[in-house]
Amino acid sequence: MKLRISFVVAMAFLSCGLSAQIDPSLLKRAQKDTLAQVLNMDAIYNRPVLNINKTPIAIGGYFEANWQKLTTEGVSEGHQFQARRFTIFMSSAISKRVKFLSELEFEDGTKEISIEFASVDVEFHPLVNFRAGIILNPIGAFNQNHDGPKWEFTDRPISTTQLLPATFSNSGVGLFGKKYHKNWMFGYEVYFSGGFDNSIIENSENKTFLPAAKENPERFEEINSGEPLFTGKLAVRNSKIGELGISYMGGIYNKFQDDGIIIDDKRSVHVFALDFNTTLPKIKTFITTEFAWIAVDVPETYTQQFGNKQHGGFIDIVQPILSQTILGWEKAVLNVACRLEYVDWNVGTFNETGGSIGEDLWSVMPAVSFRPTSQTVFRLNYRFQKQRDIFGNPPAITDGFNFGISTYF
Description:
By secondary structure, the chain is mainly beta. It has helices spanning 2-19, 24-35, 158-163, and strands at residues 50-51, 57-72, 75-76, 80-95, 98-107, 112-125, 128-136, 169-181, 184-193, 229-238, 242-252, 257-258, 261-262, 268-279, 286-296, 309-326, 329-344, 360-373, 376-387, 396-408.
């Protein structure tokens, strides 16, 4: 069935591509947008696309594939080639100030097919825009601004995939808007949506694990607790300083009543996140970081391996070292970069001994990337990672190389 779906979508995309042409006005607007200051919340709009003839429909996407060889404590699965993602964007300007946007993603071939975003946006005022459909919850920055070609690393940050559920989307509704004033930009988003369920504490990881909620496809049609998840974000950007985002996501995750009968206490999950990005003048060093703090009401009957507090984050530092015509590509860029990561899935101490609970990880990932154009990137990464178990035993060491390519199309 998955193969049949992927074949139909691929053929539809191919037929659209054969009749598509580049709209010159679209290119001019894209070039202008590249120079303009944007917020992370603009990521779904700030993508290269093709207009289909003279229709209001636009289509685009990105693809990423890589090779890797990793070793953990001397044990390796050898060389691995991975077709990680094939993502299609489709949008339409339905009428004046009414737009439809969507994002369909195929992961690991056709192992997973998902609609990551599909919404109708209606603009009443630049500060008041209505959105309804399948939304990307704006917690942190990466969840919305996750396109592979924008990053110098083959892997997504661990804190966004193993602590927060990366590309976490749900059916929902809300408002968003922006305000400009000289060098300043202000933006906000507020949504009510589906969300988490008991799987965040009942999962194969045997720990508190928010990404487990992504495995429940019913979240797009049913809220487990019967109460919506709230997600809100405020962002401010200064053209000379950078962008700072503050976000919160929280609500009841467990089914506490059935047919009006109370069967359990309400148990909540709360997530706070800070994100920041800037480009240092003159040397053009790009820095982006995101950190999250999580609090989960875990039943007292659960053992201490299920943490009620978690935190983690990452920082990327990217330094261009060469920007010139290379092999016929004008404005090609060679970068060196490094990512620092830390995650603690169980913050606290053991009740019996007072000793610190383990279950944490840190990683260093230096990288070299080459961009023949801004829309395509070759990436060579080396990972060195240490991860401790809950008892704080000597950490398991993982290291190895990744090499891959990611490009918009």
